[in-house]
Amino acid sequence: MESFIISRKAKFIDGAKKGIPITFGYVPMGIGYAAIAIKAGFTPLQTISMSFLVYAGAGQIIAASMAVTGATAIAIILTNFVVNLRYFVMSTCVLNKVEESNLGLNILAAHVTVDESFAMFSLSEDSSIWIYLGIAITAWLSWCLGAAIGVVLLDLLPVIVTNSFNISLYALFVAILVPSFKESKQIALLVLITAVLNIVLSQFLGNWSLIVSTLVGAAAGMYIVDDEYLLSGDA
């Protein structure tokens, strides 16, 4: 029994080490999120709590940005629901791969599932739930740390510095999308169509444009993107 516990601890530590590179992107992103959240009128406690309880980088930033523009709660909730639907798929894939898990660990794993931890675990040869939790919890805590740092430092840093953190999310999206563009022109076309549609619809639908354009883009993707590319795991 003791050796079993040590084995789980060793795997968790190994996963935590694998998750360290994620922290270099998440801390500045967390600071950027905090800058937007505070601007939207969130209290420091609300800003940090959202990172612990919601933990969806893009979703949190979208929610805070929409709050700044006066969006309704239902619009913010529905937008986040659509944007974060991918986590259902990711969580399912993780739970299908992991070994020696239970309901409590599954719930925790689902909560801390994000794009980067999912991608890193997908490339791991070890399918232990403790490896995944090590990766994912390290990323989660670094995101929360970034939000906490942002809350503390925003009043101390020059405005030009705090505003620069806001572009970190867009930089991450570019880093994720560019490799896909190189692999498939169809993906590039789909992203372009969705972006243009969002810009056009925003003139008529306001904050609802993101929901509509995302759904339309996803539907279009069923016909534009080849099944072979999706099944290859490169998408």
Would you give an account of this structure?
The chain has 235 residues and is mainly α. The protein has 13 helices and no strands. Mean pLDDT is 79; it is low at 227-235.
Topology:
Layout: H1 2-39, H2 44-53, H3 57-68, H4 73-83, H5 86-97, H6 103-111, H7 115-122, H8 129-153, H9 159-164, H10 168-183, H11 185-205, H12 209-224, H13 227-231
Briefly say what this structure is.
This protein has 235 residues and is an all-alpha fold.
What features would you highlight for this structure?
235 residues; mainly alpha; 13 helices; disordered C terminus
Shape: globular
Q: What multimeric state do the chains show?
A: single chain
Question: Which spans of ≥5 residues are poorly predicted at pLDDT below 50?
Answer: 227-235
Sheet with the most strands, sense and barrel status:
none
Which value, in Å, is the CA radius of gyration?
19 Å
Number of helices: 13
What pattern of helices and strands is seen along the backbone? HHHHHHHHHHHHH
Question: Span between N and C termini?
Answer: 41 Å
Q: Which structural category do the helix and sheet elements fall into?
A: mainly alpha
Helix content: over 70%
Number of strands: 0
- The averaged pLDDT comes out at 79
- Proportion of strand residues: under 5%
